[in-house]
Amino acid sequence: MSDILAFVDILVDTMQMDRAVASLKELPNTKEVYQVTGNGCNIVSIVAASDIDEFRDILKNHIMKISGVREIITSLSLANHKSLSNH
């Protein structure tokens, strides 16, 4: 189990959407990838990392280098009160 779980909101140039989604799916720390509308982003990804240094590396050296990525906003999970597996 990872110690850090983050929701990464990503704004991607629409012409680069398919390539960005494919790149995110290839990252081993990316657990889920959603194409979304609203709130200034068009992709939301759930990323797991063992610690803050690994998470920073994923952002800096992988996600931010994906072609078409214009902006990233991250939110770290503090607690899970209900998940899909708890239905």
Describe the structure.
It is a single chain. This protein has 87 residues and is an alpha+beta fold. The chain has one domain: Lrp/AsnC effector binding domain/regulation of amino acid metabolism (RAM) domain (Alpha-Beta Plaits, 2-Layer Sandwich), CATH 3.30.70. It is built from two helices and four strands, in the order βαββαβ. The chain has helices spanning 17-26, 52-61, and strands spanning 4-12, 30-35, 43-49, 69-76. The chain has a four-stranded antiparallel beta sheet. The protein is globular. It starts with a strand and ends in an 11-residue tail after the last strand. The mean pLDDT is 93.
The helix count comes to 2
The CATH topology annotation reads as: Alpha-Beta Plaits
Secondary structural class? alpha+beta
Using the 3D structure, state the CATH architecture.
Answer: 2-Layer Sandwich
**What's the main sheet like?**
4 strands, antiparallel
Q: Taking strands numbered 1, 2, ... along the chain, how are they ordered across the largest sheet? A: 2-3-1-4
Keywords:
87 residues, alpha+beta, Alpha-Beta Plaits, 4-stranded antiparallel β-sheet, 23% helix, globular
